[in-house]
Amino acid sequence: AQRVTQPEKLLSVFKGAPVELKCNYSYSGSPELFWYVQYSRQRLQLLLRHISRESIKGFTADLNKGETSFHLKKPFAQEEDSAMYYCALSGQMNRDDKIIFGKGTRLHILP
Amino acid sequence: KAGVTQTPRYLIKTRGQQVTLSCSPISGHRSVSWYQQTPGQGLQFLFEYFSETQRNKGNFPGRFSGRQFSNSRSEMNVSTLELGDSALYLCASTYRGLNEQFFGPGTRLTVL
To answer: Which residues of chain B have a CB within 8 Å of the CB of A98?
Structure first.
């Protein structure tokens, strides 16, 4: 079955420390992977997508097809990174294009 | 560009009633998707409309339906409401497809 798993509900990291938010997926095919972010009192918004292969706000994510992972990383955490992060996968499932979101990880940056 | 708007922002209904939620996409966007967000299940895809046609559908019962108008505005209807339908309903728009989606603020539905 198609699935997106974010194993950590909450991740607390000190300011300046590296951040890694984990995302594993299950999908038989070539998915498109995304990271969405929701800052406090703001809308859910796209952070980055794997096909862009770009760094946004210092975050990067590499699609590892062998490990079926798409972990989000940042070398030095900043306080403004505190937010809810969702990993998402889109692809064809039962002849429909669908998108599946993980349950999210709350990132808390400690001062 | 104005963002995605959703009305109403809050709604309280009782079991058995029906409800209609509205979503206005970003100007020029032709695809509108709907999601249900709950603490237990997270964010779940309901369906996507493109050019007034339902193009993709998630795994929700037929009580959940929608439509899209020629101006790309979309409505979602839930009939015979159940307590478990209490959730934040989000809509998102894109020019086409399920790639980068722009989300609205959501409608919080409470079923009593």
So the answer is: 45, 56, 58, 98
Structure tokens at A94: 């039962």
Residue A11's φ and ψ, nearest 5 degrees, are -130, 120
Nearest to B89 by CA among B46, B59, B57: B46
SS3 of B59, please?
coil
Q: Give the integer Cα–Cα distance in Å for B28 and B102.
A: 12
Q: Residue A36's pLDDT band (boundaries 50, 70, 90)?
A: very high
A30 Cα distance to chain centroid = 17
Interchain contact, A90 vs B43, CB within 8 Å: no
- Which of A90, A103, A104 shows the shortest C-beta gap to B98? A90
Q: Which of B96, B106, B98, B88 is nearest to B31 (CA)?
A: B96
pLDDT in tens, B45-69: 999 999 999 988 888 999 999 999 9
Q: How many CB atoms lie within 10 A of CB A68?
A: 17
Residue % of chain B over a pLDDT of 90: 82
Residue pLDDT, tens place only, A48-63 = 998 887 888 999 998 9
